[in-house]
Structure formats: structure tokens, C-alpha cells
Amino acid sequence: MEYQQNQAHVQAFLVDAAFDRLSKNQQEHAQKILQQVNQLMADRHQLDDCHWTGAALAAILDHELYQDGQAPYRQVISTIPVLKAYQKFLKVEHVKELAQVMDEHRKTMQANWKAAADQSAVGKAPREWTPENYLAWQKTMVAVASKAALLKNIEGLDETDEQYLIDEFLTLMNQEAHQWPDGWTFEALQQVLGMTMPLDPHIKPYQIIKIVALFDAFFDYLHQQGSFDAAGIVTGSGRRR
């Protein structure tokens, strides 16, 4: 069991063609995912990265990974593709068996993360919204969110595009859907993001095709800020794709 080789393997993977084939979001979270899983494998199961077992992997995905709900959703959904690519890169003998275990336990891992994330939000005092403080919050989001790392990686949109789309979205959720952020519903989000915004003549076609990616990242950004559980609205079976 060569635990000390784990980090060397991770670093080699990060410069390999297998890493290049991952999506940008998966690349962004790959190192953290591999460090966390390798550490759990070593601490809980005394296994290095070349000797994972199906049982140990199932235990990690079902009971040990993301149990505090603090990881961003974009990391959670990147976990299985990253782990599959990493084990294939290592050329372990039972890579197909491990891939099957990952597929079978993906939903449980995501459900556990969401339950933990929802629980962490319980008991927080709801924010008292007024037209004045909402407008101030909206201006802050337009100025600040577009500079966040989560949104900077949206290919095809520059900061001006993102600021306009965020501003338009927040305006419509307030003026058309008549909902404050804490009370956003999936139905209202679907109406605004899927129908109202794409029909806006001021929004260009190249911006329209990036709406889903942009607001997936925007909701994850809001969730990370801890002001309210915006990410929970669009996770699980109701998440827009």
C-alpha cells in the first residue's frame, strides 16, 4: 500500500491527456475530489489509489463523502466522471467493476449531499426583503458575482454579458414572478430562464445558449455565500439541463 504515491499519481493525472478530456468544470474540481477520496480510502479503508475495492468505494460514496453538505454542487456532479477518468488513467485491473459501482451509487451520493446541505440551512433566520434592500442586493450581485471563479469559467460569455443576464434575471424574478430570493420556486425559475429570457429581444442568441450554464454557476455561487439555499431549488430531479 503506497499511500505516498497517491499525490504523485494525482499530479501526473492533472497533466495527462485523460485530464484534458474532462469538462472545464470537472477539471476545476478534479484535484480536490481526488485528494478527498484518496484520503478517505487511506484513512477509512487502508487502501492506496491502485487498490480500491468496490465495497470500499460504495461505502465512501454512500456514507463518507460530502456528508457535511459543504461542497459546491458543481464539485458533487463532477465526482464520478473524475474518479472514472482517474482509475482508467491508473490502468487498474478492475476498472470496469469500479465504474459500475460509481454509476450504481452516484444518486445516493448526490442525495446525501443535498440532504446535508438542506439540513445545514434549517434554522437560519429568513432575510426580511424590502424593495430597497432587494435593489441594493441585486446591484451587488451584478457587480460581484460575475467576478467569481464559478462564473468566470462560462465559455463564450464575458463579464458584461454575465452582468446583463444576471441583472435581467433578478429583475424578472422580482417584477414578473413577484418572488424574493428565499422563496424562488422551480416553476418561476423555469418560466423566467426557459421562456421569458430567451424571448427577450435584447438577449442575443449566443447569450441564450449559455443561460443554463451561467445560472447553474450563479445558483452554486449563491449557495456558497450561505445567504439562502438557492442551489436546492434546481438540484435533484428538477434540475434544468
Provide tags for this entry:
mainly alpha; disordered C terminus
Task: Describe the overall structure.
By secondary structure, the chain is mainly alpha-helical. Helix content is 64%, strand content 0%. It has 13 helices and no strands. Helix 3 crosses helix 6 (79-90) and helix 4 runs parallel beside helix 7 (95-121).
Strand percent estimate: under 5%
Alpha-beta classification:
mainly alpha
Mean pLDDT: 86
SSE string, helix = H, strand = E?
HHHHHHHHHHHHH
Give me a quick take on this structure.
This protein has 13 helices and no strands. With 241 residues, it is mainly α.
Record the SSE blueprint:
Layout: H1 4-13, H2 17-20, H3 24-45, H4 54-64, H5 73-76, H6 79-90, H7 95-121, H8 131-144, H9 149-152, H10 159-175, H11 186-196, H12 205-208, H13 211-225
Helix pairs in contact: 1-3, 3-4, 3-6, 4-7, 6-7, 8-10
